[in-house]
Amino acid sequence: MDITTIGGIIAGTFLLLAGMSGGSGGLKAFYDFDSILITIGGTVAGVIVSFPLEQLKDIPKTIKIAFNKNKNEPETIIKTLVAFAEKARREGLLALEEDVQRLDEPFLKKGIQLIVDGTDPELVRNILETELTFLEERHKSGQAVFETAGSLAPAFGMIGTLIGLIQMLQSLSDPSSLGPGMAVALVTTFYGSVLANLFFIPIASKLKVRSSEEILMKEVMVEGMLSIQAGENPRIVEEKLKSFLAPNIRRVLEIKRNEGE
Asked: Using CA atoms, how far apart are residues 221 and 107, in angstroms rounded to an integer?
């Protein structure tokens, strides 16, 4: 579970509630059922219109990705690939066949199997890079749902405000109703802004981060597997794979390797 996503939403919600409760009307002043229907209902309807059913079915899975960390840690992937490089250099590529069945990562499992089967290195790269391309496209489709929701929520909030203003103007003969009517009209815009800026847009941004992390790890896997197929020295393989990582992550890996020795 990613504590930053959950912590950010909880902290943002708490601070908003604290600020909202400070006025004379308290939290009750910010509640209007009709405004909720217009903002949330309109946003959901707009998203449904914008995307096919098959893509909408994946929304729960997409939300789960935003709230969970990527299971593939850099050190684990690099350690696995270096171990494979050592075994392949000692015993040959065919010796990796029994290790393939124990792998939990489908992408890595597929690549190692292609190598064991004697597939041409250029063809291995093409197959894996094609899979990466379509993986990135699938990630973008999930991000697009929340980006669209983030743009629709403020728009429907504004629509709700216009509806409220129209209803308010129809009762100009009663000056006492103008203040409460204006407050209700503005609440709808408030709902749309909160939904967009605290939930939809941040979740879309987190999905982009998760996608970048996963693509990077799979690029590390591709280079590692091709290096194994080329019979490169395991230490060279390790150094090549670490070059994909940020300097602070490299230092952590170096410390862990030294501690292991």
From this structure: 8
Q: Give, for all 261 residues of the chain, the pLDDT tens digit.
A: 678 888 888 998 898 888 888 766 678 878 888 888 999 999 999 999 999 998 899 898 888 888 887 777 778 888 889 899 999 888 888 888 888 888 888 899 999 999 988 889 999 999 999 999 998 888 898 899 999 999 999 999 999 888 888 877 777 777 666 666 677 778 889 999 999 999 999 999 999 988 888 898 899 899 999 999 888 888 888 888 888 877 777 776 666 666 555
**What are the extents of the domains in the chain?**
1-31, 32-75+121-260
Query: What is the C-alpha to C-alpha distance for residues 187 and 184, in angstroms, rounded to an integer?
Result: 5
Q: What is the pTM of this model?
A: 0.82
Determine the straight-line distance between the first and last CA of the chain, rounded to whole angstroms.
Answer: 31
Contact status, residue 82 vs residue 238, Cβ threshold 8 Å: yes
